[in-house]
Amino acid sequence: MTKKLAGLFFGVAIGFILAWARLSDPAVIRRMLLLREPDVFLLMGSAALVAGVGARLLRAAGARALVTGEPIGWSVDRPRRSHFAGSVLFGAGWSIAATCPGPIAAMTGEGRVAGLVVAAGLMVGVVLQGAAEKRLAARPLSTAGAAGQ
Amino acid sequence: MTRCPWYLAGPLLGLFIVGLRATLNKPLTGLGGFIDLAENAVAPRRLGYRAFLLFGFVLGGALFAATLGSFSFSLSYGTAGGLLPDAQGAQVALLLFAGALMGFGARTAGGCTGSHGICGTSLGSPASFAAAATFFGTALLLSRLYTLLPGGKP
After folding, report:
1. Closest CA–CA distance from residue B87 to any residue of chain A (Å)
2. CA distance A71 to chain B (A)
3. How is residue A64 annotated by DSSP?
4. 3-state helix, strand, coil in chain A (%, to 5)
């Protein structure tokens, strides 16, 4: 319950910022993608800088997560083919709608409910990907089954 | 409409990401909430922090509109900076398609602009840098190409 409340609290705070900085406005994202204004790049960069310093300080201090009690820490991945292939598709979708998963939620909250159309598309894509991955994972088993017959 | 300058919005966003880390030891994610909701729709299960983060984004947008912005209920998406057609049907089809591409792609890549582009890079994840470089490269290139379309306005 506390986990969900913490998620909701930071969600509200972040959603407010996304809306206030107009990241929820596709016209702003389009200007970024056409390199007509540097603001969104600078926003993302400064956010990453602060987040990176903060996370490292917490870890160096040996802090534990306030709600869950677990030691602060994380692991990082090596790039795999899926990171590249998936990001090409994501980038293509991003270039059309000029929005992404967080801002689309904030946009909807602002009353521009057409954001729900993109949200519906996101749900479809997420479900299709889950199904495709399940099928891929099941393939060796089904081949083995066929061979066994 | 008021717009928060990047040098305030960026560091604030960074601080809230640190807040998520300090309370839950979890990363920022927009996509994760959609995965939570989609999984729940397919087979009901308990929603995690990611879904509540997403609900929060909606509420945060509403809070902004109610306080600093002007809340106006609108059915129109706009042209996303001049690219999308005004015709409602064509626009809805394109937006659904774009959403599905983003959902499929980001789940394949394990993250989106928030989780890879801001959070993962902040933690020095090589996979996040690879993903962010790829989706930025793709989107910047395609956006440039759209301007060459006949009647391309952006």
Report:
1. 13
2. 8
3. B
4. 75, 0, 25
